[in-house]
Amino acid sequence: MIQRRPFLQGRLLFFIPSLCYFIFMKVIRSDVLGFCFGVRRAVELAEKALSENPDKNVYSLGPLIHNESALKELGEKGLRTVEASELDKIPDGAVVIIRAHGIPPVTIEALENKKCLIVDATCPRVKASQKMVERYSSESDYVILAGDRNHGEVIAIAGYAGKNFSQIQNYEEAENLEIAQADNKNIILLGQTTYSPKEFVRITELFKSKFRNLDVMNTICPATNERQNALLELCKKVDGVLVIGGKMSANTKRLYQTAVENCKNACHIQTAAEIPSLFYSLETVGITAGASTPDSIIQQVEQALLNHH
Questions:
Q1: How confident is the model at residue 308 (pLDDT cuts 50, 70, 90)?
Q2: Which pTM does this prediction carry?
Q3: I want to staple 259 with a disulfide (CB 3.0 to 4.6 A). Which of 43, 176, 251, 266 is the partner?
């Protein structure tokens, strides 16, 4: 007599690895990730301007957000992007959105001369830095700004500075900085809102030994530090970390560098389509995202990991 075996018998070894994968695959989000307050506010103001001006030209002076997917979506709604050097492309009377990074006062004046309707989405923290630089770079004070000199925020802040002003990018430039008659001036140190907190501390300690009258204004956004600290905690719990954000996003690049230094497997991706195959085989994957990464893209990456077959 032929004895029939149950259908699954003899096939369990084939199915078990796949079954275990689905049972044990775990995705952990960082406690702090995605849109910061300033970027979320800028996007909301842009969407409001687009909905209220369906028949008018709506422009962003520079990319509103360092995320290609988000820019594409806004572009489909009618938002046009031009650089500050291309003001002639903006017709008189157009609606112009100032992104979270802000713009120099000379550019604001040029837009006003074109009778543009300005929607100011400058991050309040950046606006505060602009006012401080304008106030302190006077005859008696000297301002030093630590940040990426090619970044829109730094360019905008520097536009408010008087003659007593210097901009440094890193510790090495800080070492070489000399200020004439520094002992007779109050030295004010500020940082780009997304500047590396660790580098800022190093520069602060250096300047304390270098300048007698140093006054430090820690203008780095708390969310920058919180995002980094949350990532450090995440790295302790996972087998790999996916850092989601635009390739041009400075804060996303810093997150990726931290992930590389503190986790065996780390990758910087912009969308779910870029997830490396390795991550689908890990038991626990952590995800974090830069300040310009929309919630929808974070959700897509998480779902791609959990639903992969």
A1: confident
A2: 0.80
A3: 266
| Tokens representing residue 273 in the block | 């389509």
Nearest Cα to 224, choosing from 192, 201, 188?
A: 192
| Closest to 33 measured CA to CA, from 257, 287, 299, 304 | 287
- The single residue of 47, 134, 139, 153 carrying the catalytic annotation is 153
Report the alpha-carbon distance of residue 241 to residue 287 in Å, rounded.
6
- Whether residue 17 is predicted with pLDDT greater than 60 in this model: the reply is no
Interval 204-248: pLDDT, tens: 999 999 998 999 998 999 888 899 999 999 999 999 999 999 988
Strand ordering across the sheet containing 214-216: 165-168, 141-146, 186-191, 214-216
Buried b (16+ CB within 10 A) or exposed e, 91-106: eeebbbbbbbbbbbee
What is the DSSP code string of the chain? Answer: -PPPPPTTTTTHHHHHHHHHHHHH-EEEE-SS-S--HHHHHHHHHHHHHHHH-TTS-EEEES-SSS-HHHHHHHHHTTEEEE-GGGGGGSPTT-EEEE-TT---HHHHHHHHHTT-EEEE---HHHHHHHHHHHHHSSSSEEEEEES-TTSHHHHHHHTT--SSEEEE-SHHHHHH---TTGGGSEEEEEE-TTS-HHHHHHHHHHHHHH-TTEEE---S-HHHHHHHHHHHHHHTT-SEEEEES-TT-HHHHHHHHHHHHH-SEEEEESSGGG--GGGGG-SEEEEEE-TT--HHHHHHHHHHHHH--
Tokens encoding 178: 């000399």
User: Could you tell me which residues come within 8 angstroms of residue 261 by beta carbon, excluding any fewer than 6 positions away?
Assistant: none
Look up 153 and say whether it is catalytic. Answer: yes
